[in-house]
Amino acid sequence: MLKIFTLAGALCLTAAAAQAQVDTVRASTLPPAQQAEKLYNSGVTKYNGKNYRAALQDFDKALALRPDFAKAYYNRATTRYELKDYQPAVQDYDQAIKLDPNGYTAYFGRGQAKEALGQKPEAEQDYGHVTEAKPDYAPAWYYRGALRFEKADYKAAKADFDAAVKADPNYAYAYHDRASAERQLGDFPAAVQDYTKALSLQPDLLPALLNRAAARRRANDPKGALADYNDYLAKKTDNPTAYTNRGAARYEAADYKGAVEDFSKAIELNDQYAYAWNNRAAAYLKLEDYPKAAADASKAIALNPQYAEAYLNRGHAREMLRDDQACQDWRKAAELGLEAGSSYAAASGCGSE
Amino acid sequence: MQTLLRILFLLGTLLWAILANGQNVEFSKDQFGSDKDGLKEAQREIKLGDEWYDLDPPRYEQALPHYLAAQKFNPNNARLNLRIGNSYLHSGFKPRALTYLQKAYQLNADVDPNIHYYLGRGLQLNAKWTEAIAEYKAATPATSGKNAAAQVAAIQRKIKECENGRELMARPVRAFIDNAGPAVNSAYADYGPVISADESVMLFTSRRDNSTGKQRDPETGGFFEDIYQSTRGSNGQWSAARNLGAPVNTDGHDATVGLAPDGQRMLVYSEDNGGDLDESDLRGVAWRKPQKMGGRINTGKSHESSAAYTPDGRTLYFVSDKPGGLGSRDIYKVEIEGRGPAVNLGSVINTPYGEEGVFLHPDGKTMYFSSEGHNSMGGYDIFKSVFENGKWSTPENLGWPINTPDDDVFFVISASGRHGYYSSFRDDGLGSKDIYQITFLGAEKQPMLSQEDQLLASRIQPVKETQLAPPVAIATAQVTILKGVVTDEASKQPLEATIDVVDNSRNELIASFRSNAQSGRYLVSLPSGVNYGIVVRQEGYLFHSENFDVPAGAAYSEVIKDIALKKLDVGVKVVLNNIFFDFDKATLRKESTAELERLQKLLVETPALRLEISGHTDNVGNAAYNKDLSQRRAKAVVDYLVAKGTDKARLTFAGYGDNQPVAPNTTKGGRQLNRRTEFKVTGK
């Protein structure tokens, strides 16, 4: 996904470079007083050649000659962003905005840099500014939507994604993320539809298959879900999460043996993946293989000592193994937030402490 | 050519006859000429077996060893296989009948006109429901007539049982069924376990070889019944069973059928008058000689076989076959100290078939009993019914594998609802019938899966899907068990005292119990839904009061409270736990009436007694305000007592606020203990 970041950054720069190119033509004929513009144009060329360090030097020199050169600030900020120098990038964007408050690209760029710095409320504000200044600029809607999604404000996120696809009807990511927002809001049929749209716009957006599968499971379409998982795994065989999630779907369809196979495959790909161990424990419980269930849950707990579900599952296994430590496990699960653990302990004669 | 065909035809017929009849092998010289001694011995065993088998009524269990000896010599005789199968059908190990009956049928399809019915029984007892139904259908007589109609009805009932069994087996109950182990069970018959509510004591009946008198019952050949006791240690293990000895156990049959929740009263079955119920109580460590329960329970020559106390000890539920019931045996209830007649529990519980083995849960509303009717899967099954809103709920079969196609009777359950006990013939037994402990596991506990998805296309970080934990059924037992030891505060010695259980809201005495004279132990069951005042009293001591407000629906809990009684002496303080005020006020709530009357009674009975009534608070809030509130509250108590006629001069009042804490104010429990009303003896 980082790739997409770069792409989006490059797109912005292209927009800026389009204006800069006009200057390039003129600059070649200009007197020495126009040296700043020349350096600027040279920086743009180097940037497009991904020669960021050299580009940076050119923009530095241009700005030393002409400190009120707004475009040079903007381009240096973008270059610094590429070099992951986010804080200096923000400072350059600040300058660009100060010198040219009417543009929107510097706001968007600053939003990206602030997001990279983890300053999410500030980033959201910058994106918001762009949505007002230039409502047909889809990425601003999209990135603000993503931030709102991360705040679990799914309704607001969905509204932003709505605006993003309105501004750009071919925006696969926006459809994808709107589907995720719909899924979080419990509207599974709508989610399935949007994931499908995202896939039709960008067939290599494979996570959409996994997400559509999950939404189909919630929309009571277990067959469709399994078909999506199978589709994904036919294209990409090294993702332990995909195996784990197909395993969970098989588990839901009461195919516990098939579930064990998938969780085992996930463990084979990544034996540090606690979810796969925990889920295999659950499937072994259903298969009434309690020693294996207890062992797998223990492994999950070893990988993540705060794993409430794994304690709960190990409690179930230990109860069937006549091991009194079941009580401890249920209580630990409750302590970690799974309230059901307390009820299990109380209903199973665990005593009062 | 024709001769050859005829010979072939004859040979064919012969072969067919042999095949159709299997290979029935007679106990004859033709077959066993080479082993005359063996044959003679086998024939002798058959003869001995036949003598028992052909008695009226037949004595199958005695016939069985002889037949099995002969079977070793020749396992392929249809008649012998049939007789072994039938003997097993009437033994403890009924499922073993099937292979012999099937063999008998295979050796000779005409071995007995009732063979299909027997096969049906054998299959049903092995829980082979569908095959059993087919055999029962084959056994249904074609002819009509009075006798046939009864037979048809009986077979229809068996078919229904198989259908019930098939249905119940499809949704088995999750439970561990464990042999109670060699400390309890013996190689002989061990059965009829009864337990105290907290499972600390088990009494049961056994026919083992160290019975009192060491004599065998001429009827059955087994040792006479005696009552045994085992206690459960803190590790959950049962101690070695101990014979209760005289006067409870006699040379004849002595069987226990019920035990009060506190383990201090026992119900005993005696053979008198066709079967009677007696009662014995525990004095220290000795059970007293059982006494007859009276004519409202033991009627005429009828058979009273099982009984249970309600948790307040005031009502008895019992089983009787007396005339006027709805079936062969019915369940009745009667107020022990009252005058009214025993009442039949009615048709929701009692069926046209037999009911047996009644048990009441300490929650006071759940009854367990066995019945041959309802949706039994064969013989007696154990059922559960709850008395709510003035009626019994439809009995619910406890389900497979607790219930089996054979008789499942005399089931008891702990107050927690976690453990049941009953006896059963099982292949993992120590011989004959054994006592088993059932651990109820409740509904299947659902495992929880985790999964995550990359929900945002522009983010690598996956998001964990939040799952709701599945709902959990709360514990069904709605009762609080309060137990502990009563002692003399000064000497620390155990004390026999009376424990009154009072309904504070209704100012009504619910029940009275005695702590054990030797150990001072007591146990009371407090069904949910009542604000209880618990008063422990004994002559020469000041009463001790505890409060247990157990709201309706409160789940099972066990509270241990040791109580030290104080002798009446100047300076002694007693906390009045059952005096309640409105929040932040000095107004006495009506739930306080019982405690106030108790205090009033103490003052009347002890004319020289002078008391200081004091109020105390925790350290929450303004100290001056607390002191004032506690003083006003103490005064309210004094005013009540004076209004009821106590001389004002005998009473003083004081408010101490938080100056005299009895517990640290750092915990909720501690603060609760500090908020109290108490009295101090200032003169006597």
From TrEMBL, chain A:
Say yes or no: keyword Cytoplasm present. no
Q: Which SUPFAM superfamilies does its entry note?
A: TPR-like
| Superkingdom classification of source | Bacteria
GO BP term, pick one:
receptor-mediated virion attachment to host cell
Q: Which UniProt keywords apply?
A: Repeat, Signal, TPR repeat
Q: Where are the TPR repeats?
A: 36-69, 70-103, 138-171, 172-205, 240-273, 274-307
Signal peptide location: 1-20
GO CC annotation, single: cell outer membrane
Q: Which InterPro entries does the record associate with it?
A: TPR-like_helical_dom_sf (IPR011990), TPR_2 (IPR013105), TPR_rpt (IPR019734), Ycf3 (IPR050498)
| Protein name, entry field | TPR repeat-containing protein
| Species per Swiss-Prot/TrEMBL record | Hymenobacter daecheongensis DSM 21074
Q: What is the lineage of its organism?
A: Bacteria, Pseudomonadati, Bacteroidota, Cytophagia, Cytophagales
UniProtKB/TrEMBL annotation, chain B:
Looking at the UniProt entry, the stretches that span the membrane are none
The chain positions of domain OmpA-like read 568-684
Q: Which domain of life is it from?
A: Bacteria
Identify the Gene3D superfamilies for this entry: Carboxypeptidase-like, regulatory domain, OmpA-like domain, Tetratricopeptide repeat domain, TolB, C-terminal domain
What Gene Ontology terms describe where this protein resides (cellular component)?
Answer: cell outer membrane
Query: Which segments carry the region annotation Disordered?
Result: 208-228
InterPro entries associated with the record = 6-blade_b-propeller_TolB-like, Bact_OuterMem_StrucFunc, CarboxyPept-like_regulatory, OMP_bac, OmpA-like, OmpA-like_sf, TPR-like_helical_dom_sf, WD40
Q: Where in the cell is it found?
A: Cell outer membrane
One Pfam family cited in the UniProt record for this chain = PD40
Q: Report keywords, A-Z.
A: Cell outer membrane, Membrane
Q: Principal localization? A: membrane
- The Basic and acidic residues compositionally biased stretches are 208-219
Q: Keyword check for Membrane, yes or no.
A: yes
Q: Which PANTHER family does the annotation name?
A: LIPOPROTEIN YIAD-RELATED, STATOR ELEMENT OF FLAGELLAR MOTOR COMPLEX
Q: What is this protein called?
A: WD40-like Beta Propeller Repeat
**Protein's organism:** Hymenobacter daecheongensis DSM 21074
